[in-house]
Amino acid sequence: MFCPPAELQKKCEALDANWRAYRAAPRFEQFVEFAITVSSFAEFLHSKGLSGLHQIARDLEQQALSLFGDELSHPVPEHVFDELASRIAGLTARVAGYIENGSRPIEERRAGSQDSDPADDLAPPRRVWFIGDKSPAWRDLITQLGYFGVRVEVFGWQNVPNAQDEPAILMLDTLGLSATEASRRIKMIRARFSASNLLGLNIEADFSCLQAILGAGCDFCFVRATPQPAIMAKIVELNGGEEEAPYRVLVVEDSLTASKLVQRTLGENGIESLAIAQPREVLTTLKRYQPDLILMDMHMPDCTGVEAARVIRQHTEFLSIPIVYLSGETDVALQIEALRLGGDHFLTKPFNPVILNAIVKSKIERYRSLRRSMFHDSLTGLLNHTSSKQRLDTALNLAMAEQEPMAVAMIDIDHFKKVNDSYGHPVGDQVIRSLAWLLKQRLRKSDILGRYGGEEFLVALPGATLTQAFQILDRIRHDFSQIKHPFNETWFNTTFSSGVAQFPLISNGEALVKQADEALYEAKRAGRDRVVVRG
Ligand SMILES: Nc1nc2c(ncn2[C@@H]2O[C@H](COP(=O)(O)OP(=O)(O)OP(=O)(O)O)[C@@H](O)[C@H]2O)c(=O)[nH]1
Q1: Residue positions of the PTM 4-aspartylphosphate (predicted)?
Q2: Ligand 1: nearest atom to the Cα of 416
Q3: Which has the closest alpha carbon to 384: 456, 290, 462?
Q4: What is 248-372's CATH superfamily?
Q5: Which of 420, 434, 494, 529 most suits a substitution to test ligand 1, by most atoms within 8 Å of the C-beta?
Q6: Which tens digits make up the pLDDT trace of 209-222?
């Protein structure tokens, strides 16, 4: 999630320009432009993981929305002008300071790893600072994080370094501090760090304390006695920095002017869109474009939006895609009927662009989260069995078309039954998660990684030869065997075995998995803790 300083600067200048335009001509339409830019800037900062700047922009957005009103509400009173001006000046100064500091954006590791050679040493370590009075409890957590490429530095509250080189995450331990004192210190840290995610540790679980800590600028709170694996999981997740594909919206609208307006509004917020004027093209376009949401005009010449939605809902693959109607219709009975017949929301024209974006985004977030749970495994977040197989077939077709090699590996944790029997099922789960984190950290984004069964994983490395695949997997095997899994006051090690097969030696997905499985059993028979390739 690298954020080029020039892009940040440009977005900030656009905000400033729109604000000046409103000051010069304080009309409603100009305020709408300003509010759209604020909203788009806040979204941009969020998407780039610039947590501190995002919080300031979000507050500004809230204020702008509360002043939205209509033609009669503008110009806003003079003291409101001054308040907005001071917030904007504060935000632009923070952005300028951040750019000047040359602070590294927080999630560059994967950006750098994507196009690298399969045998490259991937992923420079990610940095986390622990702030607080040193606690022995951190030692284990810091060691564990080290296994997954996360480098931790520890500082007391009094000697937090300057924000020249912001870490990805600041863990703020509030143990022994009153809620008021903790909030005061967190506020100071938030004011200094524009990008880092702030995670509060050992926070009192009561409502007002959490409210105060979040209000002071913390992004996430761990209440007292949160189990270590939960803290680990959050840190590893934030460090993963996986960039999501842009949201996609299909606009079905017969008026060219209306669709252009909608597309422009979506585009301002980084949402991709495609417009069609003919409802009868909707099914083929849905298949081809694969949007996350449909914005549907209610009244079109040959077909109403409701009729189109009913046709869409006849297809199982489009049963859950959100449909939001756009219409001049204010008849409540008709709106309810439209929602009953397959729609998810109703927006009346002329639409408020900021509300349109907010609704589109929240519907897409839910839809994507639903799809994630359908295609991903809940324990590790990796692809589940079915989707790993599907992704493998797609990657294989691509490898065939491009005449590139591709290695496929099966990985299975050794003597895992013993882990469960000796330490319990939850500890076994944590071992599975650790292997998933390690694989995720070491493989490229273009590689395929799935949890194939209980303690079995499938990995496909497009472009990798058998030799390269062996090098990569054997290094991961070695590093996994070094991990000390904590158990009560002690720890234990565990290992995995792996078997590897390769396209084009075998050219069918199922046969590749079978061959890799056979190599895996050879590795198990030969004594485990090894990688066997089938050439
Ligand atoms: N904790 C936990 N255990 C699981 C999960 N899924 C499967 N298992 C356990 O994993 C163990 C797999 O054991 P086996 O297939 O006999 O193999 P193994 O003990 O790993 O021995 P080898 O593979 O021969 O080295 C079984 O005891 C399963 O109950 C899971 O999601 N969590």
Answers
A1: 297
A2: 20
A3: 456
A4: Response regulator (3.40.50.2300)
A5: 420
A6: 999 999 999 999 99
